[in-house]
């Protein structure tokens, strides 16, 4: 027995009058639960309306099922589905019951009409009722299909709606009772409760009775309580409240073309996040993505123009040149975001205002035109020094180097204080004729010895061909412990006038010179340094 079916049984069979509130999607279901309701009515009228279609089985039953799953996932109280006619005959009802149980729905209500039905308040007396025997076969098949004994099938008597009177209503209710129904929903379209009270008086307590007081809403609730009804369903009120609010808001915005007069009257965006449970995801990210630590940061060095790209960088720096509809910087940021790293600082220089992607920090290197990467890094580190948050890894990346996401996984793994990624396909860069940061390491790349820990011995553009073990792809990871070391060393190096135009391999060599170990992880390709128009074309197919 699931908890929700048991909860619904208690509402149905308890002595008190209980209430269900209509809900039509995940968020309205959650709102109903938070307000204090002990159960939800997934009404056909409002479920169809939220899809923008009529309550005439225009939405398929599986579309209803999909929405029910979101509602059940969002809440811990039972849901009674308004299952219309059961969407067909006995066979459709059995399948429906099985599927509802699978999706955590506690109960279903089926009404004694024919598929496709229409809403009871639209020409009710023209509506055709099902044959009693045929309807009973739907109930029996549904009851036989349920796996959980506590799952409830409520049967809805439409005799009053169709204008057939009390005798027919009682006759039908009795037949449905015998067929195995767990409760009777007696419906009426009158504005007074006469019909439902008459029914309840005759019916007494043979089965619990549910009502939908949409039309006879003026009736004091104590009248229902005293008559002994089991459940009153407020069947459409959340949707109606939402409609009025949405119409007011939309109308005001069309008229005023300004948000000021509505802002204080509508829920803040933070309320949407709260209802969605955004904070739970943030907690989970901390639990499941611990690797890079909450303080993981990225510095992207993107100050230079990239004059070799000609007109493409006349109005923006290289990092903002688009490849496949997104600037290079956007591709780089996406790779970090995908690894759960969102704290990103970009060092700008050339045309800084054009480097303006959202959700990151910017630092300027005003001397970008005659300084190198080392000085740009110094600018970023100085700005970071102020916030003192060295509690996660630091990644240093170039604004013109794009790479496959997995590169971040391989560089994240080693726990050394300094880790770089080295491409063993370094011959490629010789062919392209561009400057490259070659490296010599403690061992060459070997498939057989892939688990071996390899460290950097030297980095630079002038390492002779015979001593090159690969090309540094420009990615450096520094551990939380290594970050203060890095900051001190970069500040020291940046203060030396000869280092004004220094590239970052100067830093790697200085680290080794001071006795720090720089761990190397090898890769074969899977990154691209965008230096020329040919590279731009290559980048298109690379992404
Ligand atoms: C619904 O809410 O879809 C109902 C109740 O079936 S009524 O609209 O009153 O028919
Ligand atoms: Mg309905």
Small-molecule binders: sulfopyruvate, magnesium ion
Report the radius of gyration as a whole number of Å.
34 Å
Low-pLDDT ranges: none
Strand neighbour order, sheet with most strands: 1-2-3-4-5-6-7-8
Distance between the termini: 51 Å
DSSP strand (E) fraction?
A: 15-25%
Helix content: 25-40%
Mean pLDDT: 93
Structural class: alpha/beta
Query: Could you give a short account of the major beta sheet?
Result: 8 strands, parallel, barrel
**Number of beta-strand segments:** 21
Overall spatial form: elongated
Annotation field: number of helices: 20
Description:
There is one protein chain. With 543 residues, the chain is of the alpha/beta class. Helix content is 39%, strand content 18%. The chain has 20 helices and 21 strands. The strands form 4 sheets. The chain has an 8-stranded parallel β-barrel with strand order 1-2-3-4-5-6-7-8, surrounded by 9 helices. The chain has a 5-stranded mixed β-barrel with strand order 16-19-17-18-20. Helix 2 (26-35) links the parallel strand 1 and strand 2. Helix 2 (26-35) packs across helix 4, helix 5 (90-102) packs parallel to helix 6 and helix 7 (165-179) crosses helix 8. The chain is elongated. The chain starts with a helix and ends with a helix. Sulfopyruvate binds next to helix 3.
Keywords:
543 residues, alpha/beta, five-stranded mixed beta barrel, 20 helices, 21 strands, 39% helix, elongated, binds sulfopyruvate, binds magnesium ion
């Amino acid at each position: 027995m699931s908890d929700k079916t048991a909860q619904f049984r208690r509402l149905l069979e308890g002595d008190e009058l209980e209430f269900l509130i209509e809900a039509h999607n995940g968020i309205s279901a959650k709102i109903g639960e938070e307000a204090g309701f002990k159960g939800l009515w997934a009404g056909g009228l409002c479920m169809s309306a939220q899809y923008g279609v009529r309550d005439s089985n225009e939405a398929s039953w599986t579309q209803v099922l999909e929405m029910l799953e979101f509602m059940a996932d969002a809440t811990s109280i039972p849901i009674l589905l308004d299952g219309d006619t059961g969407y067909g005959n006995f066979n459709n009802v059995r399948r429906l019951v099985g599927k509802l149980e699978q999706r955590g729905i506690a109960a279903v209500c089926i009404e004694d009409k024919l598929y496709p039905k229409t809403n009871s308040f639209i020409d009710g007396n023209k509506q055709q009722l099902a044959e009693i025997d045929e309807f009973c076969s739907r109930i029996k098949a549904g009851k036989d299909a349920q796996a959980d004994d506590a799952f409830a099938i409520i049967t809805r008597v439409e005799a009053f709606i169709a204008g057939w009177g009390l005798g027919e209503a009682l006759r039908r209710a009795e037949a449905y009772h015998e067929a195995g129904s767990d409760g009777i929903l007696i419906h009426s379209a009158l504005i007074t409760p006469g019909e439902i009270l008459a029914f309840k008086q005759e019916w007494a307590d043979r089965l619990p009775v549910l009502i939908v007081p949409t039309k006879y809403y003026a009736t004091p609730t104590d009248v229902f309580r005293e008559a002994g009804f089991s459940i009153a369903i407020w069947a459409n009120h959340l949707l109606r409240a939402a409609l009025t609010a949405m119409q007011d808001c939309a109308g005001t915005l069309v008229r005023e073309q300004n948000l000021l007069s509505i802002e204080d009257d509508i829920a803040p965006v933070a309320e949407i996040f709260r209802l969605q449970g955004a904070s739970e995801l943030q907690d989970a990210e901390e639990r499941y993505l611990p690797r890079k630590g909450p303080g993981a940061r990225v510095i992207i060095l993107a100050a230079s123009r990239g004059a070799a790209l000609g007109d493409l960088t006349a109005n923006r720096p290289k990092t903002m040149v688009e490849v496949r509809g997104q600037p290079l910087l956007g591709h780089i940021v996406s790779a970090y975001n995908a690894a759960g790293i969102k704290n990103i600082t970009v060092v700008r220089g050339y045309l800084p205002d054009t480097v303006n992607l959202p959700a990151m920090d910017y630092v300027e290197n005003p001397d970008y035109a005659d300084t190198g990467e080392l000085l740009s890094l110094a600018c970023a580190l100085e700005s970071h020094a102020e916030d003192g948050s060295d509690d996660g890894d630091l990644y240093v990346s170039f604004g013109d180097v794009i790479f496959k996401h997995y590169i971040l996984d391989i560089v994240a793994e080693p726990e050394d204080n300094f880790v770089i990624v080295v491409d063993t396909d370094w011959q490629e860069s010789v062919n392209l004729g561009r400057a490259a940061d070659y490296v010599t390491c403690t061992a060459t790349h070997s498939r057989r010895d892939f688990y071996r820990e390899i460290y950097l011995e030297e980095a630079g553009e002038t390492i002779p061909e015979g001593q090159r073990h690969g090309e540094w792809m420009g990615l450096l990871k520094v551990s939380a412990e290594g970050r203060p070391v890095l900051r001190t060393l970069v500040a020291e190096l940046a203060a030396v006038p000869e280092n004004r135009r220094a590239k970052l391999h100067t830093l790697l060599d200085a680290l080794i010179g001071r006795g720090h170990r720089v761990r190397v992880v090898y890769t074969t390709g899977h990154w691209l340094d965008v230096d020329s128009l040919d590279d731009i074309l290559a980048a298109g197919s690379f992404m």
